[in-house]
Every structure is written in C-alpha cells, then in structure tokens.
Amino acid sequence: MSKKSLAILMRARMRGAPNEPHGHRPQQISRSAPNPSRVSDRSHSSNLADSNGISAKDVKEWMQASISIPAGSRDPADAYLEEFSQGYLMLSQEGRRELLLALSRDYDVNRARVRELMRQYLSLELSHGATDDQQSSGLDDDGALSTFYRMERNLRDALKPMYAEFFERLNAHPGGLKLLAILRADLLVFLGEENLPSLRALDSYLKEKLITWLSPAALELHQITWDDSASLLEKIVAYEAVHPIRNLIDLKRRLSVGRRCFGYFHPAIPGEPLIFIEVALLKDVACSIQEVLWDDPPIPECEARCALFYSISSTQPGLSGINLGKFLLKRVIDMLRKDVPSIAIFATLSPIPGFMQWLLSKLASQIKLAEAETEEAKLLDMGSGSAFRESLLLQDEEKIILESFTENVTGKSGIEIMHYLLQSSEWVKSECLSAALKPPLMRLCARYLHKEKKRGKALDAVANFHLQNGAIVERINWMADQSEKGIRQSGGIMVNYVYRLEEIDKNAQSYLSTGHIHASPRLC
Amino acid sequence: MSKKSLAILMRARMRGAPNEPHGHRPQQISRSAPNPSRVSDRSHSSNLADSNGISAKDVKEWMQASISIPAGSRDPADAYLEEFSQGYLMLSQEGRRELLLALSRDYDVNRARVRELMRQYLSLELSHGATDDQQSSGLDDDGALSTFYRMERNLRDALKPMYAEFFERLNAHPGGLKLLAILRADLLVFLGEENLPSLRALDSYLKEKLITWLSPAALELHQITWDDSASLLEKIVAYEAVHPIRNLIDLKRRLSVGRRCFGYFHPAIPGEPLIFIEVALLKDVACSIQEVLWDDPPIPECEARCALFYSISSTQPGLSGINLGKFLLKRVIDMLRKDVPSIAIFATLSPIPGFMQWLLSKLASQIKLAEAETEEAKLLDMGSGSAFRESLLLQDEEKIILESFTENVTGKSGIEIMHYLLQSSEWVKSECLSAALKPPLMRLCARYLHKEKKRGKALDAVANFHLQNGAIVERINWMADQSEKGIRQSGGIMVNYVYRLEEIDKNAQSYLSTGHIHASPRLC
C-alpha cells in the first residue's frame, strides 16, 4: 500500500469537520462493510429488517446459537460468532441497542440458581461447623475444606452473568476483541442517553473483562516511524485527538529526527495502536505547542535535555476508563532513558480540557449570586456586597477589565464582562482585552489545577491522569495553544507536568491516598 | 549472539540424559540466577535461610507487602513484586512449598464476609419481592435491580480468594506471567506429592486465570526459521520433547526447505514460544519418523501434497491442561493452505505414549487371572480356561510367539512370554521375535487407539488431543520410531491422524458429545 491513500485520507479529513467526536471514525476507516445508517427513526425495529436486510432478530439468533453450543466444542460456535460479528456491524444504532438490551436481560445472572447455592453454602457451614476460627487456626480438615472450595467455585461460576461465556468466546474469536471494544463504545453511548441498570451492569462486567484481557503484559510497545505502513500511519492521523495532524509534512515531522511516537499494540488488534504517545526531544521544557509542532527546527538528539510528551491519544472509545496510558508512559520513559541518555527532564505540554467550562460556570454562579443579593438588598434596603460571595476577581484585575472593554458597560461588573467575553474566542484578537484577561485567567487556572477537586481527586481529567502517575504541576503557559479548540477549552493556556523520576512513586502514592496535588512553588 | 553458544548447548545436552523430564530445564537455561538446590532435606525451613541467604519468610514478607498496598497505587507495589520474583526463584523446593501453602491458606476466601453478604442478598430478595418471574417478564424496577447488580458484583469480589489480587498484580508486572507459570509448575509438583485441598484450590484458581490471560487473542503466531536468533533456536532445541534434536544439522534441516516450524508467542514472554509445532511438506503421509527427520531429502515445496505435523511441544510445564495446541494447529493449517496451495492432506505422525503401559498392565492382569483360575481349577478339580478370561492373543499369534521364543518356556503361555519380552527392548534386535510380535502388537494397538477409553474419551492423551480437534485415526505404522523411547512407549509403532478440513467441525463435535472415535476403515 503506497502513501498515496494516506494523502487522500488527509485531504478528506481536512475537508471534514475537524472537531467531530472521533468515536466511530475507526470503524468507518478500517472496515469495508457497508456503512449502516446509525440513527434509525424506528423506535422498535425488532421484526423489521434494517436497510441492508439484517435485523436485530437475526443477529440475536446468531448470538443465541453461539452461546447455546456446549462449552467444550467451540469449533461449531465459531461460525455463529462470525455471523454475529458481521451482523452486528451491519445493524443500525437502534438495532444494536435492542440487541444489547436483550443480552443484558436474557443472559443475566441466574438468580434462582445463585439463591439455591447460597442456601446450600450457608447450611453447609452450620452442619460442618467449620467456623472462621478453625480456618484461621490452619486446621486443614480435608473433606470439609474441599467442599467449601468446590461450593465457592460453583458460586463464582453461578454469579457470572450468562453473557460472560459469550464475551469469553468472542474474545477468543479472530477480530473478537475489537468487536467487544465497539460493543462497549455503543454501550457507553446508550448509557449516556438512558442509564438503564441492566445495561450499566453489562457495561461494568464487560469493562472488568477488558481490563483483564488488556493487561499490560499482553500489550506490545512499538515505536512508530515513517517506515511503518501507510495503513498504520493513516490510523495515527485519524486518531490523533490532541493536536490534529494537518498534512503529510506535519506527520513526517512528528515521526522524524528529534521526535518519537510510541504505540501500545495488542496481538488481537494488529496494525492499530490502542493508544499512542508523541514525544519531542528538546533543549528545554517548551512553553507552547506552536514551537513544538511548527516553529522550531529539531535539535540534534544528543543535545536534548528534555523529553516532552505533547500528545497522548487513545483510539478505542470502547476502552474508556481503562488506564493504558499509565503503563505506556512508564515504559516510554524507561525506553528513552536508555535511548537518549542526555535527557534529564521528562515533562508534558498538556491541554487543560476542563478549565474554561469550570470558569464559566463559576462566573455564572457568581453573577447569579450577585443578582440575588442585589434583590435581597433592595428588599431589605441594605447595601450590596456579602461575605458569602467569593471574590473571583482581584480589585486590580476588575479595574483593568472594565477599562479595556470599550463597549457599553453601564452597570456591568468585571465578572459579568469577563463571562461575556469568554463565551466566544473574539477577545484573543484584541491585544488590549488579552492583556486585561491574562492576569485573572492565569491566576484562576493555577487555582483550578492546584485546588479544584472532585471526589478528592483533581477536577481536571488530564491533571488527574498525570498526578496519579506521579507527576507534579510545574508551570502554566500563556497563549500556548492558540488553536480554536485551545482557546475554547482553556483560554489558550497549557500546562507542563513534570515527572521527576526519583519522586514518581512517592508523589503517586501520596496523591492517591490523600489527594494532595504536588505543584512547583512557582506555580501559585 | 552467535550460533556458537547454541552449539555449546547442543554438546551439553547430548552429554546429559536425553530423557530427563523437561520440567525445570527452561529456568536453568534462561535465567542467570544461581541455581538453587531444589531438593532440601529440611522439612520445615521457615526460619532458616536457604543456601543463598533467602528464606521463605523474606519472600513471604515481600508478597504480603505487595498485596497490602491499596489497589489504586500500584507503583510502590512494583518494588515488592520485583523482590518477590527474584526471591521466589532463589528459594529451595521446600521454601517454595511453604510459601505457596501460606498463600493458599492466609489469602483464601474471606468466608465471614461472604456469609454476611449472602445473608444480605437472601434477605434483600424477600423484602423487595423481586422474584424470578418479575425478572423474566422484563420488568425493570430500577432501584431493586440496581441493588441486585451491586450486591452480585460485591459477592463476585468477595468470593475471589484474596490471592486473586496478587496474581493480577504479578501478571501486570514485567516477567510476572512467566513467574506465574513457574509457580504453577511447582504447584503441580507439590500436588503430585500430596493432594492438599488448599493447594488444589490455589492451582485451580491460577489455572483459570492463566487460561484467561493466555487467550488465543493474546498469542502471536511466528514462523521460526534459521534466521531467528540463537537464543530462540536454543530454546527450540531445549524444549523439543517428541523427537530430540541431535545436532545443528538436524536443527537446520527442521527449519529449512520442505520443513516448517511455527511457535505461539505471548508478548509478556518474549523470545520463547509457549508451544511450537514442526511440519514436513511431503509427497505423501510418512510411515516413519526416520524418513521425515533423516532419511529422505526434502522435495521441492511445489510438489508437496501432504503437510505432516510430526512434533508438537509445549515449553511451560506450568501451562499444563491449558489447550494452546488446538488453536495453534488451526492457525497453522490456515496458514499452510495459503502458503502451499498444492497441499491436500493435513496429517500427523504421532507417538502413542500410553500404548505399552496399557498393554503391559493388561497382560499382567491376564496372567494374574490365569493363575487364579489355575488355582481354582486345582481346588475344584476342573479343567482350565474360563469364559471370564479375555483372549488377548489369537491362537495363531500365540503359536508363533511360542515357536519364536527359543529360551526355556516350559509351562509358559504366549501371554507370559509376550509380557516378559515387552519389558525390555531386546526383542527389537531379533528379526524372528519382531516378526512374531508384530501381528498382535499392531492389532492390539489399533484396538487401544480405537476402543480404549477413560471417562468417555480416548485413553491415549495424544489421541484425545487430536480427536477433540477433529482429526480421525488413519493408519498405524510398524517400526515407525525405532528410538529407545519409541520402542519403550509403543513398541516402535506410530500413528497418523488425518485432519479432513470439511469434516473437522463435525468430527470434533461428535467426539466431544458422544465420545465416538472416528477411524479409517482400514485401521481395524
């Protein structure tokens, strides 16, 4: 396969919406199966064939057939699994939903059997009198213990939903792991629409199995270079989620001298990384993505002092919540230490995906609170200003904002103006507004990264990822990502996390146990 | 690494006993760790250090430390896992036994918690009134169902032995999968010595996990050639269990034109196949291993009509009972069909490892029965010969044996002479004895393969393997393996199993469901 098809893909992508969720792209790229209309207006299509003639009922029958064949004789099940796999991909979104719902309900835990076994287990305990005391005293009453072990094994089996066997078989079937990931991606979409307990249980069980099958022991690290096949590079282009690859020159630069790209591959999903990371070898920690990707020419690798991780993308939306990045990062650091011994600093240049969303909602609630207080003040005939109101802007900051904003602002507070400005990206075009917004945005961004939490962990997902892996928050950088997306997500600010090798374990442990966010003193 | 070390290994192996069980060889070859004295005369060495200063107690502490660290923060556990791994390999056999016993007992299922959860589960059912009828009617009472799902998940977790987490962590740790296989190999040895329920439960749980981790989806098929590294080829030499590799020329021939060798590899155990298969591309199904390995020069591959599988060896005794061969065979057949389209026959030339053992015990019991009858006849003053006695030899066969055996045979029956002769391999050297033994041995061997069963399956382990994969018993071959081992195991007889592609699934299914052994009509 020549690199020509890659160039064609590039052009196609450039024309398409760059920010479409990358959820179901992979399927469309890698499969030649007809692209089903994924949104169906039929609310219950059980007995109606989809546009391509495949109905959820057909696919359900293949599923049932592949489950019903006895466990020992897997071969004949293979044909059904193949039919199921092909059929599932041809189903409409509604057909898939129906099928997964049927799987979750009709192949659930056999509760009658579980109850029966539990009663036996509880009664057995009494009749044999094997209490915990006896157990812990190391008494090895062979007969009684064997019975316990046997019953516990039976209970473990009985507590598995009946679809467990189906997942096991599908995983062993060629192409099955990929299909399971697609299945879970669909499940996550359906759960987003409606949180049904049976689908949630299906998802949670499938996730657990995927974690086992995708153990780091089963994954292979591969350095992706310009010598790799076009079909692989095409996937890198399609899946790069952080900083879209603009053209072939951009791609080539990311794989050439002074740059590295590493992917984690699973034998069952060949030619397609599950997750990949892009690294730049630099003199020092970069302050902006522009200099990494476009502005500066690469330096000789022997002069590199910093390995900068500037992008990490996972390719399977169905593997969401399965932390492969942590192990990838660890192995890449080990590899780079051997490969480029001059490197002393391992850092990231990371997006802050949740900052602007957090800030806008903070500002909005402040404005609401202020309005309520004004109402109250009117009613109670008191002056405004309350101890309950958080002061998001410092006095100086508010003053400068008011001065910089030249439109009609009668009666508007600095917070209201800021909230208004940040809802679009127009402010970036004005030097004056940028200068006025920089101090509060930088100060509040540091606070967001360092202090804001959710269930005891950093509120920002990327921050949480690096902190749990043992990094510290080192520095935030103004106008580090001036892309439309960068401005929208974080006002263009990016952050450097730093991995100090000797402190990784200590930091990770203290973050995980106490939630303490380690940051450089110069951050705040 | 040059091929020199391989030649040195060859010489070393040729000097060593060729028939030593290949159980613990791999470790000694691939690890540079000091070779611990595996047999300790200390019956209880808990507080005594082994010769290398490592005690079971130390290793147990590392194990405990690695388990006790909370699940989220795996990094610090890594150091303990590393210490555990190193330490375990340094322990004596007795130290390992002690450690595994401690693991199986102190990290067993928490029965108090299981009981408590079960009581909650059973009571919950009553109070919510969520019976099976309601469930199957598709009623989705969100609250109640969610509670069931949650409790079932908790029960599944609680029913896992506490060592489950340790196995999971070890598997994710570099080198962990290999260590788990070593651990299980040790377990199997200890269980062979004494069948303790707690160790058996540990083994059965570990086996179940290994089956999951070694799912065919995680394995990679690789064709092993003379271009592979010496370190890999060295392992092929060390692990070849069926027909030992005599020298470098023998090895090279098995990897060159007209021959194939395929291995199944797991990413976590690089450079070492878990199982490998050797194939010869021939004009027709071979009748003896001599012609495959030494006598006939290879034919041009385009003239090959038969792919003959003449050796399949698994390298990890700790993976015993985990059927990797079936998937390997399937994939190799698929690959050869594409690679060498002229091939029309897929057959094996297989040993019959259990034949002589079965025959000798049959003969011995016949002799005993005859003796008992003679005694009885004396007492009751009746003639000998009884309807209960099975006639192992036909009259003609007995006659020829009596004629051929020239030593003093007064009063000995043909069965007694046969039993005597088959206990050594001397008969092979006499043309006359060979000719006399051939008809009964061939006839009884066909019967052994075709009729003798254990729990409804073929008694011979290799036969059972190929039959469950869908092969049929095609032909048995006289003097097909004249090696010491071949004569001892099966009187030099080997068997061809044939895989008829269009019948594989059908045969496998009928064998697995009814135990019916499919054989060629000319066999019997």
UniProtKB/TrEMBL annotation, chains A, B:
Residues 27-38, 45-54 have a biased composition (Polar residues). Pfam families: MCD, MCD_N. Residues 150-213 form the Malonyl-CoA decarboxylase N-terminal domain. It comes from the Eukaryota. One of its GO terms (molecular function) is malonyl-CoA decarboxylase activity. Residues 218-499 form the Malonyl-CoA decarboxylase C-terminal domain. InterPro entries: Malonyl_CoA_deC, Malonyl_CoA_deC_C, Malonyl_CoA_deC_C_sf, MCD_N, MCD_N_sf. GO terms for cellular component: mitochondrial matrix; peroxisomal matrix. Transmembrane segments: none annotated. GO terms for biological process: acetyl-CoA biosynthetic process; fatty acid biosynthetic process; malonyl-CoA catabolic process. Residues 12-55 are annotated as: Disordered. This is Malonyl-CoA decarboxylase, mitochondrial isoform X3. The gene is LOC109728607.
